[in-house]
Amino acid sequence: MKNIFLAFSIIFSIAFSSACVDKGANSGNTSTGGDTGDIKVGVYVDLTGPTSSFGQSTKNGIQLAVDEINQAGGVNGRKIALIIEDDQGRTEQAKTVVEKLIKQDKVVAVLGEVASSNTLAAAPVAQEAKIPMITPSSTNPKVTQVGDYIFRVCFLDDFQGSSIAKFAANDLNGKTAAILGDVNSDYSKGLTEFFEKEFTKLGGRVLAKEAYTQTDPDFKAQLTKIRNLNPDVLYVPGYYGQVGIIARQARELGMNMPLLGGDGWDSPELWSLGGESLKNSYITNHYSADDPNPVIQNFVRTYKAKFNNVAPDSLAALAYDSAKVLADAIKRAGGTDNAKLRDAINATKDFAGVTGTISINAERNAVKPAVVLEVNPATKQLLPRTTIYPEGMSAPTAAANTNTMANGNMMMNANQMSNGNMMMNSNMMNSNSNMNSAMNANK
Ligand code: PHE
Question: N or C: less crowded end of the chain, CB within 10 Å?
Answer without folding.
Answer: N
